[in-house]
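Quick start: what a row looks like.
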Amino acid sequence: MNQPTGIMAWFARNHVAANLFMIIILVVGLFTLRDMRTEAFPSFPPETIAISVSVNGGGIQDIEESVVLKIEEALVEVQGIDTVRSTIVNGSASVQVTKLDDYDLAVLKDDVEAEINAISNFPAAANEPVIEAATRESDAIWIAVYGEQETKVLKTVAEDLRSQLLNAENIKQVDTSGEPTEEIGITVSEQQLQRYGWSLSDVSNQIAAQSVNQFGGELSSQDGDINVRGDFQGYYRSDFENFVIQANTNGALIRLGDVAEVTDNFSEQAIVSRFNGHNAIMLKVVVTGDTSLIDAADAAKSVMDDYEGNGTLPAEVHLATMGDQSVFISARLDTMVENGLIGMLLVIILLALFLHPVLALWVAVGIPIAFAGAIISMGPLELNLSLNELSTSGFLVALGILVDDAIVIAESVYSTRMKSGQASL
């Protein structure tokens, strides 16, 4: 009688190899599961590369001619580019490169960097181009900094908490919303203007002339080029109070702080940010790259708990979380594990009652082995997929099919062995 051939027949005759292979699948599957990325919903793979160049004191037309056109010309010969989009504002330019669908983003980034770095005739006022490839991004959790306190206090707490979040191992990006923009307010009374014979435009022109940050050109010499730049920009209230508005013939200086009220406040916001009826500043933890959503959310909550417990939180300022996406994927993973255990238990009970206990045990062991094999194929070394709402739903559907097929196959194996007189398993 000819023995069956093929890999399955070989494993059936070599029990040790089959058991060893089973153990390897389980172990590798567990290690792969530990490192798998989790997210709420599957994210689209990144397809863009951003090129940013800042030009000190450059106008829009100057930046277009001296920077953007040179970048666009350099990118003409680069393969794998679908579209190129340029945006110019005063002082900076950005070029967004979109790759073709079947082209590798890392390869394209290297080619773009090589072409941009080969440009040697950027203006002296231009800073080094910054080239960044887009990464996967998804929201993990929001943290609200709220309370009946001044906006400046809330902003200080939010900035401090944000810096601590960024120091956490699994957090790479934290965005802020509802944070007002700081501005300097200057109020000059009508009496002071009449006293010195000024107009508001006179005071404004003096302030604009002294608060500057502008590129003034370059000086060439045998030793090299020297950039000339005027950097006298005022940032704080004390800087503006020291601006000289008028110098008298006797040497006396009239400064802005002597004739005007200079305040350090916040600009009016078109959008009001509130949480539980209180003023709030929101911090959004964003998952980037291959970082796990669950790990990032857990790290954010741990940092928040430590911040609340160290005693540095001002009175009437509170922290709270919202929009925690890890709750949903964690619940789905718990459901998948729970259903898997219930399925194994049902298989063991049914097959032990109607067939054979040993057969029931081996069929039940096949369920985690099948799941471990699927995890390995989804891992970062293979398909690089994630555990999300959709993939876990697929696991739940496959679980029902797997349990049903396992019972049918086990019954067939048992009846075949009984007919052939091989009752032992």
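That is the whole record. The two ends are 22 Å apart (CA to CA). The first strand starts at residue 48 and ends at 54.
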